[in-house]
Write the structure tokens for this entry.
Amino acid sequence: MRVIRRLSIRARITIGSLIVATLFFAAAAMVMRDQVASILDRATVTLLKDDAAPAIAALENPTMDAIEVPGHGQLVAVVRPDGAIRQSTLPRPLRSELYHLVDDALSPKAVTAGGEDWLVLSQPVTTADGTWHVVTARNEESSALVLQSLTNGLMIAALVLVGGFGIASWLLATAALRPVNRMRRTAATIAAGPSRELLPVGPAHDELSALATTLNTMLTEQRAAADRERQLVSDASHELRTPVAVLQGQLELAHLSTGDADALLGEIESAQLTVRRLALLAGNLLELSRIESGGLGGSSDWAGLSAELAEAVDRARVTAASDATIDFDYGGPLDTGDWVPIDAHDFGRIADNLLSNAVTAVGDVGVVCARLDASAQAITLSVFDDGPGMPEEFMPIAFDRFSRPSQTAGHGGAGLGLSIVAALVHSAGGTVRLENRPEGGLVAEVILPFTATPRRDDPSRRCRTACPSD
């Protein structure tokens, strides 16, 4: 068994086909030989009856004076009721056994006499004088020769057929595995160096075509992941270059200001701000990597998400300008039977980023409102602001890494907030969109589906003045 496992697929298919073909042709040859043997036996019995027919007719017809003499090659013996032989053309070895051959069973007997095989049939004939017996015999040598010749022919034919079947199996396996060899050569080329080539997909809709399609999908996804990783490294290197250069300059200035305590303190404080920006950027990059690697887990119910939104609003109020108004409301079920496939902490990250962008957009005086709704299929988080909105040309790339609209470029953000929001929402199977409001400002809408029995919407609670109406 271990030796077979080490063979190639083509060799194993050929060996298996040869075994099946050998068993099939051997069984077919045995059945055919048995059928021919049965036919020969029936033909011999028929000849034995034909040989005995004239003698039986003479015995059954009392008007006939004598029994006809058997023809050439006919071996017939007529035995009287008292056991005496009336007439016989049987050879001497059979004639000496004639007493044992007389039988009323009407079934042929295989007898070996004088070194030869015979088939003997004894037929009783009842007359006025008693029961006569007509015994006929046929030599089995001719039948044996026919069977032997047939057996040899069948063996030769079976060997030829098995050999041809093996060659055909080898050729068919080679043809069937040819697409696999092409796939292997292409895979070796892809593994040898950078290549955008895909595995060849044959025109047939078979298992190999399905395998090639699946592998091509995997290759495409892996290449896309590698491209995203390279782009992330490139973007991160570009974004880190500036703060690192600024930090280096600040440290050099601090070194030059060692004799001036006030100047040295100012340079240290500036360096601390730069370090915070670097730490924030590194943390956001790690967060994106965690999300895209599928490291998220957990789920939350309605109560957990509404409580997390309230905490996010409180955090936004702490960081917002003193004259900015930040409000929130919710409408949905009051029980906690449904759940959403996102952790409450990750939902808080979504709310934090959207509220932070909205607070930045409204500036010192403005209104921001967050609303959490629930329908039968999903929950919806909407964050509204009455700021200047977002440039239409920036909308298609708003969720790309390190993308920032021109009006917020000076606020110190790295442009990763919306990327994190999109990654978190998509990992939970939801959608996110941005849209400028007709009355001014921007709305960010996040839809997260339920993954349990849906609950009916509870529209009894509505947003206050700062939120748009349904």
